Amino acid sequence: MAQKGTGKTLEKLKNSVNDKKYYEAHQMYRTVARRYNKQEKYSNSIKLLHDGAVSLMEHKQSGSGSDLANYMMDTYILASLPVDEKALDRVIDILDLYPSTEVGRRSFLSKTFSWTQKYGDYSEGDPELHNYVGAMFYQEGQFSLAEEHLLVGTDDSATLLGELSYSWAQQDSNNGNGIYLARVVLQQLAMKSIRHATLTFNSFLKVANLSAQSEASFQYSPAGNTVQVSIYDDSWLNFSQLMLLTVQRDGAALFNQLKSTYGPMYLHQKGFDELIDDIGAAFFNIQKPKKQGNIMQDLMNSLFSGGGSPSGNAPRQLSGSPALGLD
Known about the structure:
This protein has helices at 2-18, 22-38, 42-58, 62-78, 85-97, 104-119, 127-139, 143-150, 155-169, 178-190, 194-208, 235-246, 252-266, 272-284, 295-303, and strands at 214-219, 226-231. By secondary structure, it is mostly helical.
């Protein structure tokens, strides 16, 4: 009987929307949902609010639709709703209809990720949702926001980050392409995600369509097989590649050699030295220098505050490729 009653209510409210009685419908959606919540009939409330948000947004009433969407997320949290495919699909339904200019979208996203962090399996929030939101921001040209979400997303996110890094670099005439790739790869390695760093690196090479200037030999271990490594005319690109290779072997000495060789380049970029220290600690148990504050958080705040260049100031691009010095 409850489901039948809910169905009749939905039909009545949809008719109000179709009749362009938007204010009346909006208020009724809220009133009925509030009553359901007081009765702890959260599934009924969620169904109602989802339907209302979608219906109003489809009729270009994004402000009213956004209000119901945010109320739906409040109800998710009130109901301690587990993160599952059905619950996430409702979120995606609404995000598909959200105008990028609607101010309520920011609050909706904040509540959504808070819900996935609290009731899901991932401390940073659901990776599939991060991938969707990151791709959404990328399509809108909001590269900084896109990068923030894609860094904690899926394999597809890592691949898209390679494309994003190249696209972002094309907007910056003062610096080479490689620095945009390097800051992503280094962050991924600082999070111990070799797989994602490799996917991003390869994706960047593919979209940039770069040709190697030469090759050099690299061994993953003193007794291991030798592989040929491409050398590019972008020092940042070579640095990223060598760091990727180094963390995959017992290479603390080589890691320190990379720091020495490329230090004059990366030390001019805010936050890069902290990332290198994080990588050394993560892969080679090299103790980090004692510093104040949360290093990774400070860097993320710097990276995602917007602006055209990775560090806020125009990074210095050094030409040529330093000697590899590989054994």
